[in-house]
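[audit] Reproducing an earlier prediction to check determinism. Same input, same settings, fresh worker. If the tokens differ from the archived copy the diff job will pick it up downstream; this log only records the rerun itself.
[audit] input (278 residues):
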Amino acid sequence: MILCSHALFRNICCAASAALLLAVALCPEVQAKGIQPVCPLQASPYLSQTITNTSRVNAADDSERISNSLAISRQLIVIGFMGGRVRGSNLVHREALLAKDLQDLYPLAVHAAVFANHDGSAALKTILQLLDKNRDDCLSAKEKTDARIVIFGHSWGASETVALARHLNELSIPVLLTVQVDSVQKPNENDGRIPPNVREAVNFYQSEGLLHGRSSIEATDPKQTTILGNFESTYRKNPVSCAGYPWYARAFMKSHIEIENDPSVWNKIEALIRTRVL
């Protein structure tokens, strides 16, 4: 009789366990919790070519990151683009010098980097990694809205400036400021219309010589973007030294590289950027 009771109890428990497992399996809420969320950034076709898994930091790196978190929580990301086929590390050019000066002045509050104008995907990858504060390879809504980004460039680099801002707009990432210096539009790009994720934009240009930049830019949505101005420079009476530049640049695109090397223009740009450092 006792053996029968034990067998009956075991059968009831097994039946109850099976029913419980079936209920859990069919419960939509439990199923939803068991599904891993898909990161919108990783699902983007454009980003699939530019994002790689971020290396995991070890305990020492993590401790250092936490200790500096207050200083860099509102870090200004400054991205520059060179014109022509110039490398981002070429310190003959003002773009690279400006980034270096900003990084030296604000080692924690600013992350400044300059890229060749064909390296837009590398610049985007850098931005996304910097915004990913918790290193989970996926930007949250807060990490996006907390972004503080300035992008600048000369010639083709100015065109790439707008192109990068447009990619960030597709990801709902805001940009504080874009700066174009004698912007020359690259194929398949539109450097004249500033996307609505950009808060402020400014354009510096010259109209002399064989190669000259865009004379005006406009906001796609004037309610979202303020155009600070389109400012023209002239060098007929006040030439600027372009020492260190190739002979062919000085011969055939003199005014185009004069504005790139003009201290008065770049002092204004630096002042605009420094007002955005917290």
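[audit] rerun output stored. Observation attached for the diff report: Strands lie at 76-81, 110-115, 149-154, 175-181, 193-194, 198-205, 218-219, 226-232.
[audit] end
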